[in-house]
Amino acid sequence: MSTLEVEDLTAGYGDARVLHGIGLTVGEGEICAILGPNGAGKTTLLRALSGMIKARGRVRLGGTDLAGRSPDALARQGIAHVPEGRGTFMPLTVEENLRLGAFVRRGRDGVNADIERIHGYFPVLKDRMKQAAGSLSGGEQQMLAIGRALMSRPRLLLLDEPSLGLAPLVTRELFRIVQAINAEEQTTVVVVEQNAHLALGIAQQAHVLETGRIVLSGTAEQIRADEQVAQSYLGYRV
Question: Which PANTHER family match (predicted)?
């Protein structure tokens, strides 16, 4: 069963078109990696899927057509977007940030239980609940951003460069947690990531973008074994 279906998606900024007829399908409970060089349109793709920019084409989530809906409407449909740079509310406390993540839910039942669930994935946040988000380390801020997104109980989690600015050890731990979230909650994940090794290590499928077009698609194993991808993004020859 497909969670996300994208057909002939075009998007851009003003008169500048960035995406040119993107089409992809992500199965329920899968992790999909989006790879490509800087300027390929990866961030624009996630912004189009979450309604942050206007786009043309067809986007369906669980069979529901989402074309033309606002970001808050898409969030209520089950799309959570963790943007590049994390997007946490720095003056607010960790707890306030987490509770804001539940604003799209129709009821408040279970919010406290969900905060405890987030603590299970990110134990360090439990000890930081009364701290301002701006006082956290970069890795802790990324954990908070993902935790806040999970508070909406999303069907689809969009992650834009989650490893940006993080130490390798923190990055590996973060990807391990994303994989655990996917496995335990069956949350579908689309991750844009420059660290292709890590992204392909947790993904079931991947797509390579260049100049706003998908130029290569396949399973993570197929993409990892492709000589062009290996040389361009993984640093070795097949």
Answer: HIGH-AFFINITY BRANCHED-CHAIN AMINO ACID TRANSPORT ATP-BINDING PROTEIN LIVF
Can you list the positions of beta strands (E) in the chain? Answer: 2-13, 16-27, 31-35, 55-61, 64-65, 79-82, 156-160, 188-192, 205-210, 213-219
What is the per-residue DSSP string for 161-192?
Answer: -TTTT--HHHHHHHHHHHHHHHHHH--EEEEE
DSSP at 201? H
Give me the domains of the chain, ranges plus CATH numbers. 2-234 (3.40.50.300)
pLDDT in the model for residue 108: 66
Identify the DSSP state of 8: E
Q: Kindly report the backbone phi and psi dihedral angles of residue 26, in degrees, each rounded to the nearest multiple of 5, phi listed first.
A: -120, 125
How does residue 238 score in pLDDT terms, banded at 50, 70 and 90? very low
Query: What angle do helix axes 111-121 and 168-185 make, rounded to 10 degrees?
Result: 130
Q: Which residues pair with 192 in a beta bridge?
A: 34, 160
- Contact (CB, 8 A) for 182 and 203: no
pTM above 0.85, yes or no: yes
- pLDDT by residue (tens digit) across 10-35? 999 998 999 999 999 999 999 999 99
Residues 186, 109 contacting (CB under 8 angstroms) = no
**The dihedral formed by the CA atoms of 80, 196, 120 and 151, expressed in degrees to the nearest 10:** 0
The dihedral built from the CA positions of residue 40, 9, 189 and 67, taken in this order, carries a sign that is: positive
